[in-house]
UniProtKB/TrEMBL annotation:
This is MSTO1 protein. InterPro entries: DML1/Misato, DML1/Misato_tubulin, Tubulin/FtsZ_GTPase_sf. The gene is Msto1_1. Keywords: Cytoplasm. It comes from Uria aalge (Common mure). GO terms for biological process: mitochondrion organization. Pfam families: Tubulin_3 (PF14881). Gene3D superfamilies: Tubulin/FtsZ, GTPase domain. GO terms for cellular component: mitochondrion. It comes from the Eukaryota.
Length: 180
């Protein structure tokens, strides 16, 4: 009597420790990142001009821009120059959306710039919910298109990331890598 029920493990506070409201996953990040370690893709921000980064080709085309590649290389060289003995790189990359294309181009750049160094790539996919899976008679055209994009992004990401990595390890909490 008088005791409140235990909060659900999935319940998320809507307040950041500093008291501001939550808009992005990074609002929960308690670690302070060095400014050189963060590269913001302005056109694909949550309130950006182009909407969301949903296709492999969109991600790949971001790194076709010489200014973007130069900025990325400058940031990378900043950290590489600080190393006494560089052994390799770890790349964490979403497979299910346009970041698979970004990751593919980044691993290609690392492979070209630092041949002989190990590249361990983690291809990440979220757990797909039952509402997003295709079942006969209960899908919308938007769900169908999202599933096609997800499948193509995952397939292209696996092929490209594994071809430029020393070791490629796909990971998901679901058993299907988000592919149904």
């Amino acid at each position: 009597p008088g005791a409140s029920p235990a909060p659900s493990r999935l319940a998320v506070s809507q307040e950041v420790p500093s008291g501001g409201s939550v808009r992005l996953w990074s609002d929960y990040l308690n670690v302070r990142l060095h400014p050189k370690s963060v590269y913001v893709i302005r056109q694909y921000m949550h309130d950006g001009d182009c909407g969301c980064l949903e296709a492999f080709g969109q991600g790949e085309s971001l790194l076709q821009d010489p200014g973007c590649v130069e900025e990325l290389e400058d940031r990378l060289h900043f950290y590489v120059e600080e190393c006494d003995y560089l052994q390799g790189f770890q790349v964490l990359c979403d497979l299910h959306n346009g970041f698979s294309g970004v990751g593919a181009k980044v691993t290609e750049l690392l492979c070209d710039e630092y041949s002989g160094k190990g590249i361990l790539t983690w291809g990440l996919t979220p757990v797909s919910s039952n509402t997003g899976t295709l079942t006969v008679g209960s899908f919308s055209p938007q769900d169908s298109q999202k599933n096609v994009y997800r499948l193509m992004n995952t397939a292209l990401g696996i092929v490209h990331l594994s071809s430029h990595s020393s070791l490629f390890c796909p990971m998901s909490l679901g058993g299907s890598l988000g592919i149904k």
